[in-house]
Write a structure and sequence with these properties.
The chain has 343 residues and is mainly beta. It has helices spanning 40-45, 214-218; strands spanning 9-13, 24-29, 34-39, 54-55, 61-74, 86-101, 104-119, 123-139, 147-157, 162-166, 169-174, 180-192, 197-210, 228-229, 235-237, 242-259, 262-273, 281-292, 297-307, 314-317, 320-323, 330-342. A 12-stranded antiparallel barrel has the order 5-6-7-8-9-12-13-16-17-18-19-22.
């Protein structure tokens, strides 16, 4: 058996087990890529004296399968302070597949959310609508480094129509694939497994914006080229249904249990186009606190802030839709209690 001096041990996961009053740790031999579960006293006394070595099967894939349902309801009967009967529901699903081994890291996350609310005097309205997929692949030259040369692809859209309401009138302002965002880029990613932190920096990212609803495309919604009309208002050419940009992207994720059964998650994204108004930054920042009551009941509070210079605020004046200002900050606050099934 080789001496301890010729064996490089990397302690990557340390835990204490009470089994016949012995303490164990997991160690890895970098030269042979073998993994062993050893008694702590054997490591202290010298690896060459170890009589029992148990191979450990590493789990390179980490997965999350989570489906949730939040429901809230308010009903009033002869309530002297007033109130409106209302019921709302939010369905969500999250699937994560993260792979990390030696020189390679591959992170995948798919999230969907759809929520509706019904009030007795307003009817059914949508509150939340999201389809979001993100995949990042990275490769590093040495297992010591936390930096990876990487590529990233992400896609985001929604399920159903979105409306703006003015009295009894509603107007479509979004729908499935209107808008939809596809980002493809190359860069570098920093991955810290201990703190569950990643930072992705891409100096070259292609951003494609799709508006497949032709009425919205004709209006020039979400930054696409609008339709052309003659002096009498007759359509000459329809609006473009896609727009492409090339710019820089920074994305960061952080997830940690800050207290027992309290998990904080923060996701940030910043993008700036090189050609059109370089320096204007599109911001997408979301954070959430999850409170785990038990294996099935959870509560969460979160905030979602967005800014996109291509999304202009409009208003109807005398029945005519008129642009009244440029882009503005969009903000949404979430608070819910519900059932979550984790498998």
């Amino acid at each position: 058996m080789r001496k301890i001096g010729s064996l490089t041990l990397l302690i990557f996961c340390c835990f204490i087990l009470q089994a016949q009053k012995d303490e164990y740790i997991t160690v890895k031999d970098i030269e042979t890529d073998s993994v062993y579960r050893l008694k702590l006293k054997d490591v202290v006394s010298g690896f060459e004296n170890v009589k029992e070595k148990k191979n450990v099967d590493l789990i390179y894939w980490k997965k999350v399968n989570k489906i949730g349902l939040n429901i809230s309801e308010a009903a009033f009967v002869n309530w002297n302070s007033g109130g409106t009967n209302a019921i709302s529901g939010l369905m969500s699903a999250e699937f994560v597949r993260n792979f990390k081994k030696d020189f390679t890291v591959w992170n995948n996350r798919f999230v969907t959310r759809f929520g509706i609310s019904r009030q007795s005097d307003l009817g059914v309205r949508k509150t939340t609508d999201l389809i979001d997929f993100n995949s990042t692949f990275g490769y590093r030259k040495t297992t010591v480094s936390s930096w990876y040369t990487s590529g990233n692809i992400s896609f985001q859209t929604q399920f159903d129509h979105g409306y703006i309401y003015r009295g009894d009138e509603r107007t479509i302002i979004s729908s499935f694939m209107a808008p939809a965002y596809l980002l493809v880029g190359i860069g570098t990613i920093y991955s810290d497994e201990v703190e569950s932190f990643t930072a992705y920096i891409s100096p070259l990212t292609l951003k494609s914006t799709f508006v497949l609803n032709q009425r919205l495309a004709n209006l020039g919604a979400y930054g696409v080229e609008p339709a052309n009309y003659d002096a009498d208002g007759n359509l000459i050419t329809e609006g473009k249904r896609a727009r492409k940009e090339v710019g820089a992207l920074f994305k960061s994720t952080f997830k940690k249990e800050i207290y027992k059964n309290v998990t904080f998650e923060n996701i940030m994204s910043f993008y700036s186009d090189y050609i059109n108004k370089f320096g204007n930054v599109d911001v997408d920042w979301e954070f959430e606190l999850d409170f785990k009551v038990n294996n099935f009941i959870t509560a969460n509070v979160g905030s979602h802030l967005k800014y996109d210079d291509d999304i202009k605020i409009t208003k109807k004046i005398d029945g005519v839709t008129t642009q009244i200002s440029g882009a503005k900050v969009q903000w949404k606050q979430l608070l819910g209690v519900g059932v979550v099934y984790d498998f």
